[in-house]
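Forum: Protein Structure Q&A
Topic: Joint prediction for protein chains with partners

I've read a bunch of threads here and the consensus seems to be that you should model interacting components together rather than docking separate models afterwards. I'd like to see that in practice. Below is the full input, 926 residues plus whatever partners are listed. Could one of the regulars post the assembled result?
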Amino acid sequence: MEAIDLQLARETVQKALQAGATAADCILRTEEELNLTVRLGQVETLQQARSSGLGLRIFHHRRVAITSTSDLSWPSIERLIAETLDLARLMSEDPSAGLPDPAWIQGEPKDLQLWDSDGLSLPQEKKLDLVRTAEQAALDYDPRITNSEGASFSQVDRKTCLASSAGFEGEYRSSLFSLSATPVAGADGQLQRDFWFTESRRFQELDSPEEVGRIAAARALRRLGARRVKTQEVPVVFEPLPASSLLDEIFNAASGSAIYRKASFFTGKLGSRVAAPQVTVIDSGSRPGGLGSRPFDDEGILTRTTHIIVDGVLESYLCDSYAARKLDLHPTGNASRSLAAPPRVAANNLYLKPGPARPTEILASVSNGFYLTDLIGFGVNLVTGDYSRGASGHWIENGRLSHPVEEVTVAGNLNRMLVELVEIGNDLEFRTPIASPTLKIARMTVSGE
Amino acid sequence: MSEHQGFFQDHYNITARAVEKVLSAALKRGGDFADLYFEYAVQEAINLEESLVKGTSKNIAQGVGVRVVSGDKTGYAYTEELTPDKMLQAARTASLIAQERSGTGPVSVDGPRGPEQQLYASSRPLVEFDAATKLDLMNRADRAARGYDPRIKEVQVSLSSEIRIVSIANSQGFWITDYRPLCRMMVVCIAQDGASRQVGNQGGGGRSGLEFFDSKPPEYFAHQAARQALIQLDAREAPAGSLEVILGTGWPGILLHEAVGHGLEADFNRKKISAFSGLIGQRVASELCTVVDDGTLPLRRGSLNVDDEGTPTHSTVLIENGILRGYMQDRLSARLMKAELTGNGRRQSYAHIPMPRMTNTFMPPGPHSKDEIISSVRFGLYAVSFGGGQVDITNGKFVFSASEAYLIEDGKITAPVRGATLIGNGPDVLTKVTMVGNDLQLDEGVGFCGKHGQLIPVGVGLPTVKVRSLTVGGTSV
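Posted by a regular:
Agreed with the consensus. Here's the joint model:
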C-alpha cells in the first residue's frame, strides 16, 4: 500500500492547478479484500484482490467535471487532468459549485481507531475456521435446518488519501471484518431462509461464530409455518433490523440534496415538529471504532455529531458543501463519493436514541398487531412520504407472538408514521452503521388476504 | 467490429502466449477449468438539474479477473495492472482453491476471435460523441418537460453512456472478444400544485448509439415523466387487500423477473434452495403463460453477443404453456448439473465472479385484446408503471412496486391511485393468470438487476396480463 500516498494526491492537485484548474481535489483509495465462503462444510469460493484508484474533481470557475482511473502512472494522470479540464469547460456555470469554503475546513482529523492491522494479517486458515464454525453451528442447531446457502467471511483493508486546493490534506486507514451465515429451514414442504451477521472494525470484536450460526438458524426456523393474514389496520412493531431501514428513509428525507430539489417530505419543515416527542435521531461520524465512522468526509470536512431530530422537532439537515450552499447552511461532514461520481450525502453512524421500554414490554402492549421482522422491496416515495413494502414477521395476539406471517405488505405515510411512533425500545445496538432499537407505530395497513 | 479483437494485444501486449502462461499458472495446482476475463470500460454520466448541466463524470477502468474452478469450488483474483507479473500473481492466488491434485497440464489458446452474433455491431456508441451532442439531448428533455405543464417545477435529466471491451479466454483454448456499447437517459419530474408535490420518472436506452433517440426522442421520455407526476397530483389512496390486477405492457414484466426469473437461475436450484427446485416438468403457470429469457434481441439493454464466460446467448424457454421447462445456466452449474449452457453466465465487472443471471425476460403475446381484458374486471387495479422489485428465492415471496396505477371499476379505468407494493408467491402467481394480451412490449431499457451485490443491465417485457388475485399494499382498507 506504500505506493499510494498523500504525496500523489497533493501533486495531482498541484498539476491540475498548473494546467488551468481554478480549484481541484483528488481522492485516492487502495483496497485489499479477502472473501471466503463455505457451503455444507466445503470451501465454495476464495477471492482475494487488491485495487487502487484515483478520483479527480476539477473546477473551472463555477463549472465542474469528475473523472477517475485505476492507472496511476504520471502520463495517465496528466492526460486525465487535461481531459477533465476540457469536460469542465463544457458544463454550465453553477453559482453553488465549488470546493468547501475554507472556513468550513477547520481542525485536525482525529485517529478514530478504525484500522486493525493485527486482525487483517491473521492467517487465512483461522478465518476459514470461523466460517466453518458459523455454518456448522447453524446446521447443528435443529434437525429442521436442512440446507445452507453458506457462510462467509470478508475483510477489507482500505487506505484513503484526500488533497484539496481548498486547503485540506488528510489520510487514514480503516478495516472492516464481517461474518455471516445463511441457513435454510424446511418442514411440511415449506422452505425458509434467513441470515445473521456480525461486522466490526476489529477482528477480535466480531461476535462468536457459534452465536452467528445459532441466531441465523433460529431466524430461519421462526419463519416456518408462516401464512398470510387478513387485511386490517393494526399497530406494527418493527424489530431493530427493519427499524433501521425505516431510519434510513428518515435519513434520506433529511438529506440536503433531497431538500434543495424539493424531493423530500421534510422540505420546508426545519424547526417544525415532524415526529412524536420521544423521537431523537442523531448522526455521528466521529465515534471511535464505529462502523460508519471516518475522521473526515470525502470533501475534507471533519466528521461530527449532528442532531437531526430532537424530541420530535426537525433540527438539522445533513449536507455536503453543494447542498449547504444551496440551502445556506453548513456542511455536516456527510459527503461521500465513489471515485467516479460526484459527492452525495451519506449517513455516518445514524441512530435513533433508545427509549425506556424493553422489547417484550412493547410486544405486551399490543393486543392485536404485527411484529415485523423483515422487509423486502422498494416502495417508498420520498417526495410524498408514501410507504408500502413487502413484509414478514409474526402476528401478535394479546401481547404474545401467535404465528409467523408472510406475503403481506405494510403501508402508511412516513409523515404520519413518525408522529405515531409511540414506543421506542431500550435495545439499541450498533450492529450496522444505521441502527435503531425496536419501534412501535400506532397504526399501519397490513394487506394480505 | 473486427478492429476490437486485437484491443488487449495492441494496448497491453496480451498475446496468445501471455494468455497461455497465465492460464497454465492458474491450473498449476489442479482444477477443472480456468478462465480470464479482460475488461476495458469507459463510462460517462452527465447530470442536468435546474436547467443547468451541473457536472459530468467519466471513469476509465481496465483489469483482468482470473478464475479457477475445481469441483464446485471457485478461486478468484483480479488485478488492474495488465502486466505479466501481476497477472501471474493473480493466477497463483486463484489457483490456491485447488489443492488436492497436480497440475492440469499446458493450455493452448487461439485467437482472439469475434462473436458470431452481432447484436449491436452497427452502432457508434454514444460515449464517443462530443459533449455538445449529448448536452443537446439533455436540454431538449429539460425544455420538453418544463413546457409540458406549468405545474412541472423541477426536472432532472441524466445521460449515461459506456463501452466495454471484454475478452474472455479459457483453459479449453477458447478466446473471444466482444465490444459492448450501452446508453441510458432518465428524466425525473416533480410537479407541484398548491401544497401537493408528486414525482414522475421515465427513461430509456439500449446497446445503441445516438440513433436510439431517433425513434424515442428525449421529448418522449420528458413528456412521460411529466405526465406521470401530474397524474399523481390527483391520485387517491391505493386499495389494500387481494384484488384482481391487470398489469400493463413493458416494464411490468418485472413481475416475471422477480416471481419466476431469479428462482430459475441454476445456482439456486443446484443448491436446492429455490422455491422452484425440483419442479421441472410441473405446472407452475396457467396454459396461457410462456416465459422466455432471450439474450439475442438486437440492441436491447439485456442482450449480449456472448455472455461473460464467452458462451453465445440463447433464447431459453423457462416456462412453456404453463409447464416449467428449464433453468438459466452458467458454466459451473451446467457442468455440475450436466445441463446445456444457456448463455446466462454474467458478472458486473472483472472484479466479480460470474453467476447465472437473466438477460431479457418476457412473456410472448396471448390471444386477448387490452380492451377485452380491462372490461372483464368489475373492481381491480390497473398497474402500468413500476419501480423496483425483490424476491426471497427460497420461500418464493416477491414484491414489485407500482408507481402509476388506476382503479378499474365496472370494466372501466377510473381514478389514479398512489403508489403501492404488490406481493405474491412466485411458484403460483402465474397459475392465476387468466388473460394474456396480444400487445407484448419490451421495456424502455433502464433496468438493473442486483444479485449477491453485483449489478448488471437487464430487460423485461410483458403483454397486458390479468392476474385473478394479487395482494395490493395500499392504505385504503
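Chain B touches chain A through 80 residues (CB under 8 Å).
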